[in-house]
């Protein structure tokens, strides 16, 4: 999970897309505290922060040598401040990774629309950001260009080459890669099938067509995981009239992003004083507490675990409850129609969340799986099912009570490998308050409640 910080002149003008003509003196975060920002991130379980170093209005949060439309022309710190520098230093001390967003669209810069000149200008600003501030772990950009305003061509390949040269460890986000891609919406929700595999050759860089980007491609030749971007508030920049989403809404987004093999990029916009608002902090704290309450105790660790086959002792089924992607269960190398993990408990357990992880360094393999439990009649009954797993898959369903389970992988691109399996109880979500019997009784005449959620 990463936090996005949308911050700039828009914060002071109650706007989302600035015109590029706002007087830079309006930018004056009198209580600015980058340490507060990164502490909020770390305390809430977010390992990376990404700052809008420049948004579409062209206002720069660092003193760029390429324009005066920046913090050096603002009221803040008498024009001597540098938001990027302070955030970099705070993130390094706290141990949070840093990413930067440099908008290709620039509504202030006069040379925007002159293809060659502006591409050089953009690369000059990118060079400043990637050489002045130490290690940058993600460079975030999109294909925005204000259709109809000015005709503009972006030299994406040149930009990507420069970024990889200056910051070899940085991943580049754009709508279609090259390193990580847009999931296709700004709701923070991935499709129920989501491959990290992708064919960048099939997509035009800078294209924002969600049809190709969302679910990936099981036959893809490139490894381009998806990011789910969403704002904690209705807008991307802070507005005094808006309130944040609830912790329960964030939990639902967590299931539908992180729980679907994606990174959750949650925007938390600093306010006009230069701080994360207390309302937002309270929601993030509650979100963190809820996650910890659900996912701290893995019931599967109490199970006797066996498998339909095992390659050898190094790949024991018991590896699936060790919290590491480098230990995993692997079946025997024989052709099978399905692969099964059995979990047997000494006493009845109650749960409504399944977590499955693949050792992602070995690729993404699982195409279809389901979880069955032994019901009160001793019959196998399906609790939940899914398609892709990837780094992490979370499935929420009506509560199950049982002492015998089996995870069945029905389809896989190669021998399925499982690095972690978790069973948890979520008492907070809607399904956490519904028994399996009552959920089944609601199916008649409509699609099941389980499917609708």
Automatic annotation (TrEMBL):
Q: Which SMART domains match?
A: Alpha_L_fucos (SM00812)
Keyword vocabulary terms for this entry:
Glycosidase, Hydrolase, Signal
Its EC number(s): 3.2.1.51
- The EC class name is hydrolase
A single Pfam family it belongs to is Alpha_L_fucos
Return the InterPro entries for the record.
FA58C (IPR000421), Galactose-bd-like_sf (IPR008979), GH (IPR017853), Glyco_hydro_29 (IPR000933), Glyco_hydro_29_N (IPR057739)
Instruction: Give all residue intervals belonging to the F5/8 type C domain.
Output: 287-426
Write down the Gene3D superfamilies for this protein, in alphabetical order.
Galactose-binding domain-like, Glycosidases
This protein's source sits in the domain of life called: Eukaryota
Q: Which family does it belong to?
A: Belongs to the glycosyl hydrolase 29 family.
Protein name as it appears in the record: alpha-L-fucosidase
Provenance organism: Penstemon davidsonii
Q: Provide the organism lineage as a comma list.
A: Eukaryota, Viridiplantae, Streptophyta, Embryophyta, Tracheophyta
């Amino acid at each position: 999970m990463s936090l996005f910080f949308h911050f700039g002149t828009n914060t002071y003008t109650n706007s989302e897309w600035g015109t590029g003509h706002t007087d830079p003196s309006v930018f004056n975060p009198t209580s600015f505290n980058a340490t507060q920002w990164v502490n909020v991130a770390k305390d809430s379980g977010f390992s990376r922060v990404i700052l809008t170093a420049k948004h579409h209005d062209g206002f720069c949060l660092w003193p760029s040598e390429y324009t005066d439309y920046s913090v050096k022309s603002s009221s803040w710190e008498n024009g001597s401040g540098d938001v990027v520098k302070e955030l970099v230093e705070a993130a390094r001390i706290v141990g949070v990774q840093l990413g930067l967003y440099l908008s290709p669209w620039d509504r202030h810069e006069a040379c925007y629309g002159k293809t060659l000149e502006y591409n050089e200008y953009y690369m000059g600003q990118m060079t400043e950001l990637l050489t002045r501030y130490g290690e940058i772990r993600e460079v975030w950009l999109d294909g925005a260009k204000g259709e109809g305003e000015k005709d503009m061509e972006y030299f994406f390949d040149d930009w990507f080459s420069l970024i990889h040269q200056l910051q070899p460890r940085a991943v580049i986000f754009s709508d279609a890669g090259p390193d990580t891609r847009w999931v296709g919406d700004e709701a923070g929700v991935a499709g129920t099938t989501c491959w990290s595999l992708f064919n960048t050759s099939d997509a035009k860089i800078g294209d924002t067509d969600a049809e190709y980007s969302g679910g990936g491609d099981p036959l893809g030749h490139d490894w381009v995981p998806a990011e789910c971007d969403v704002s904690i508030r209705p807008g991307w920049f802070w507005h005094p009239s808006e309130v944040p989403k609830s912790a329960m809404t964030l939990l639902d987004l967590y299931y539908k992003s992180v729980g679907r093999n994606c990174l959750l990029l949650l925007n938390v916009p600093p306010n006009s004083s230069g701080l994360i608002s207390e309302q937002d902090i309270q929601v993030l704290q509650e979100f963190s507490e809820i996650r910890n309450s659900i996912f701290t105790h893995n019931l599967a660790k109490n199970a006797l675990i066996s498998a339909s086959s095992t390659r050898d002792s190094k790949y024991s089924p018991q590896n699936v409850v060790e919290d590491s992607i480098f230990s995993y269960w692997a079946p025997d190398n024989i052709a099978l129609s399905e692969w099964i993990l059995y979990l047997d408990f000494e006493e009845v357990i109650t749960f409504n969340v399944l977590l499955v992880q693949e050792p992602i360094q070995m690729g993404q393999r699982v195409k279809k799986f389901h979880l069955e439990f032994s019901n009160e009649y001793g019959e196998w009954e399906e609790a939940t099912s899914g398609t892709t797993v990837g780094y992490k898959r979370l499935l929420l369903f009506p509560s199950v009570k049982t002492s015998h389970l089996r995870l069945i992988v029905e389809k896989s691109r190669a021998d399925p490998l499982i690095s972690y399996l978790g069973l948890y109880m979520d008492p907070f979500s809607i399904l956490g308050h519904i028994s399996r019997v009552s959920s089944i009784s609601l199916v008649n005449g409509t699609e099941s409640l389980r499917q609708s959620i």
